[in-house]
Design goal:
Number of helices of chain A: 5
Radius of gyration of chain A: 12 Å
Oligomer: homodimer
CATH superfamily of chain A: lambda repressor-like DNA-binding domains
Distance between the termini of chain A: 17 Å
Helix content of chain A: 40-55%
Structural class of chain A: mainly alpha
Order of helices and strands of chain A: EHHHHHE
Chain lengths: 73, 73
DNA sequence: CACCCTAGTAAAAGTCTCTTGACATAGCGT
DNA sequence: ACGCTATGTCAAGAGACTTTTACTAGGGTG
């Protein structure tokens, strides 16, 4: 698959939402703490399903949490 | 990962956008025709990256193309 | 110091996503 | 009938995502 960066504001939104810990977010989103750590450090992109769950857990829409930047424009 | 359905309107939006064929959408989104077929038939969910690329190829936001339905309410 | 909480690192294993290639079906025009 | 286009099926394999487990380290509290 071609390039295109995805940025995320998970860490930022975690603190806006009452200082949630990684573990609290993980539990609310239904994944493990490891996954949250990896995403905050941009080790990889989440699946669409997990992206939705994290966005909802943070009280946001997907595109408020994850921003796609096209490369060619 | 827990449940939660993701519906998509790829096929519908393909026709709204000037009767795009699966192959045209695939090329514009940077994936293969097989992948478009699988997604339209909901064989699996796309990655977040591909979801963004498909949404952009269809001139839409992610949540206009993919709808997440929580199970517990 | 001893204890707990939060965050980070690492590796193995399993599941899911995506591609490639070959083949099948249906419609449409000639 | 023949060729062309659009859609669909199947299978194998590579690569990406996620979990599990174990371990390290800093900060605060008693």
């Amino acid at each position: 698959m071609p390039e295109g960066r995805i940025m995320n504001r998970i860490r930022y939104l975690r603190f806006i939402n009452g200082e949630m810990t990684q573990e609290q977010l993980a539990e609310k989103a239904g994944c493990t703490r490891q996954t949250i750590i990896a995403l905050e450090q941009r080790k990889y992109h989440p699946s669409l399903l997990l992206a939705f769950r994290i966005a909802r857990a943070l009280g946001q829409g997907i595109e408020d949490v994850f921003q796609y930047e096209e490369q060619g424009g």
